[in-house]
Structure to design on (112 residues):
């Protein structure tokens, strides 16, 4: 699967806004975090696909993937004091499950 463009992800969020609209920082994630951190989305998606194919668990934690990216890479999102903000994990999980069919239901999603 080719890496998603910023526009593709923005459009995917817009089309599926009902899954994001009640989340506190959805607009921040879409308009501020994602444009400057699309490289982190790509790494998150890649790691999630790898886990789904190789670890063979039905469910996985988005926060654990973020933790792994923090420790195992030099990726950073520019958040003050953090390599990668925890606030992005629920959005990354929803977006990855929307974009990659094999990740459907991989993450537990709180009702928003």
């Amino acid at each position: 699967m080719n890496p998603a463009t910023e526009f593709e992800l923005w459009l995917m969020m817009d089309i599926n806004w009902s899954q994001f609209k009640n989340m506190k920082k959805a607009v921040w994630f879409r308009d501020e975090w994602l444009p400057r951190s699309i490289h982190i989305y790509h790494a998150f998606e890649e790691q999630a696909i790898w886990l789904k194919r190789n670890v063979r668990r039905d469910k996985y934690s988005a926060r654990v993937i973020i933790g792994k990216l923090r420790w195992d890479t030099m990726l950073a999102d520019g958040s003050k004091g953090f390599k990668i903000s925890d606030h992005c994990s629920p959005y990354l999980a929803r977006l990855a499950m929307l974009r990659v069919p094999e990740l459907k239901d991989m993450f537990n999603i709180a009702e928003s």
Notes: The chain has four helices and no strands. The mean pLDDT is 88. The two ends are 29 Å apart (CA to CA). The helical segments are 6-15, 26-54, 62-72, 89-99.
